[in-house]
């Protein structure tokens, strides 16, 4: 009569061989998929990180976009003012661009190159690139002596040292506009807004 199949022979052996052949293929495709996903996440991280992480400064100064209310309050403090304007830590350029639309020759200093390039693009897109300039620079290595309007979005840790620097460099007709945090010693001549949108203006001739 017919002999029974021995364990591990016949169809059972054939199925096992197929599993062994397909297993490396599945592993290879799994590795490729994981690698592709990892590369995609890395690319997104490389593009997004410079916009949300702090630039390398002596004091950690993260990029937090100005609100529309803050921009409007800054412009309110600039009414009737003349002369060149500088935004210290200009971020994505929105203050510089808004000031240029009001007729100012406006300059932004920002250490993060991604934000500087993006600011230049926005200025070109909004048609004010001829009245704006953006520089990749550490604020502590720049002299602001030829500006009569200075805007700063700072953090408390940097304000005392920046107050001293500006007092030494600026002319007596300069106005300094601080957003989010005031200077520790100067007494503001004008204040507008509330909460995080508060803006303080200091006239150097009185401060």
From TrEMBL:
Keywords: Membrane, Methyltransferase, Mitochondrion, S-adenosyl-L-methionine, Transferase, Transmembrane, Transmembrane helix. The chain crosses the membrane at residues 28-48. One of its GO terms (molecular function) is protein-lysine N-methyltransferase activity. Its main location: mitochondrion. It is a single-pass membrane protein. One of its GO terms (biological process) is regulation of mitochondrial ATP synthesis coupled proton transport. The keyword Transit peptide does not apply. Residues 1-24 are annotated as: Disordered. It is found in: Mitochondrion membrane. This is ATP synthase subunit C lysine N-methyltransferase.
